Amino acid sequence: MRAGCPTYRFFHLIYPHNLKRSITIRVFMASGRLVQRYFHFDQKERKDFFITSIILSLILFFFVWRTTDYDLVSALASYFQFFIIVIGSLFLFVAVPKWFAIHRHYTAQYQGWLMASLIGFVVSFTTYGFVPLLFPGLIEIQRIDRLRHGKVFPGENRYDIFTILSLAPITSIFLSIILQFFFQLTDLPFFYAGMVFSAALAFFSLLPFSKNIGAHLFYTNKTNYFFLLFFSFSFFIFTIAGLFFSAVFATILTGILWLLSKKHLKKQYGV
After folding, report:
1. pLDDT of residue 28
2. What residues does 138 pair with on adjacent strands?
3. pTM higher than 0.85, yes or no?
């Protein structure tokens, strides 16, 4: 049946939901094909991901070790649990921006910052886990030229880059909130370690170093970056302190900071 014939127009006038359902199915199918084609981890990404996970697992182990006595068997068992935590948290940290970038017609490639991770390992070891420095690395954004062609802003624009990269720490914060809920229900150290690690991952990834996500967020949107950094820092401190509603307290502090700086932001940037 042709789209221009009266019967076709009459059918979709009576049953508009069928047309909407057809469009929705086609959109999902197109998105699925894009994800299937571009969502992958190449060999270098897998290598960086695996090495970074091992180092970050050791840092998490040192952090918990300072308040827990281990023998050899329990230490190995605990490290295996921490490795699972780090693998899961770091995978979501990278995978969610990757998935969203594809839908914005970009690719996101993970690059580990191994030198900084080793420095964090040494600092954590020498301070007996008191200073858990976590540097997960960078997610590099590149446009897909054939898909970006024809858009109003076909190149890499700041809004897209900030939105994609900010999803990494935001995902870690949401994961930490979920693990906090499970920790309150079960009181298991596994969930405590997971919520602390996810909160720390979000904060340290936002620090403005050249091979960190934070530097790229700073250059794309300084105002939003500053508030996101302050929120993640507050959330990290409250999470370590064991406050159940750490996200609520961090939101209140960030809101107060926004109100205090509102006049300056309006004068400086017109926001």
Report:
1. 45
2. 111
3. no
